[in-house]
Amino acid sequence: MTEQRESTESVASLPEPDGGVPVTGKRGPLLEARDLHVEFASRGRRARAVDGVNLAVGEGEIVALVGESGCGKTTLARTLLGLERPTSGSVLYGGEPLAYSSHALKAYRREVQLVLQDPTGSLNPRHTVYEAVAEGPRIHGMSDEHDRVVSALARTGLRPPERFLNSYPHELSGGQRQRVVIAGALALDPRLLVADEPVASLDASVRGEILALLLRLRDELGLSALVVTHDLGLAWNIADRVAVMYLGRIVESGPVEQVLKAPTHPYTQALLSVLPDSPSPVVLSGEPPDPTRVPGGCRFHPRCQVLASGEAARAGVDGLCGSQPLMVLPAAPSSAGSHVACHYAGVRPG
Fold first, then answer.
1. Which domains are present in the chain?
2. Which residues, if any, are the signal sequence (predicted)?
3. Which residues touch 322 (CB under 8 Å, ≥6 apart)?
4. Which of 13, 90, 99, 186 is the most buried (most CB within 10 A)?
């Protein structure tokens, strides 16, 4: 029996708080991963970079995908963009499976745009702002190129846009460069942005401005976004829902306030404990395991502070933690509340 079909009683489903943001409309999620697996050859073995993931992003919704470096979140994002082919499972856009022909991917990437974390690396230093933003409309043969460039720059707060058209990246601040990158995506009128660590390379003074911009674009244009980050503080400030990823799996997901105010999975608790206002940081032992050697049972158990402290043993689930696989979590629309893949969470009181 496959891992994702086992031990369904060990996955806790928590009630939803009032005011949750709906994930699915009448037509279902805008972008969805269904039982997604992505494997790579590594030293004669198979690295399970994405190892059974269900994830949905609804119309006008911002979902944060969080986890440590190496957990698989960037590979998942690249697969959702069609830059990687899944080993198994599927990516659906508007309810239809993603096609991988050149023509289909070109049309898809007009509507689902990538925003990278390093604006300096994303922009060609020899191209002006106009050329950078116009690249997408040119690729797609749009006749109203100039109007699209000017409109996109204005939407990102680079006003008046004419002031920036002939500037080069080195003449701009880091925040302005990131706005140019976002404008390049907006020039195609996308429905969804995939933002990979969109403020990681920026000074603290401008991070809030870029996050506020993404929220404003959601409110004004109805844009959806998947924000990939290691920063739960960022997720708190921008996301409607959060999905916490560890070693290729989503281990906890749900409405952001529910997950981050009352985290249930020990891994989520550890990630939150390093925030400045946390009373007691949790120090995890060791590094994330090699994805070619995924531990048996709960994949987090070799580093789990609940298991190490004896709490899991007192709850009578320590044997399960090291031996009984956990199921793949559902995509977790907000109507279903939060989900967590944890033996201890399913039995602990309260």
1. 22-117+197-260 (3.40.50.300)
2. none
3. 295, 296, 297, 298, 301, 307
4. 186
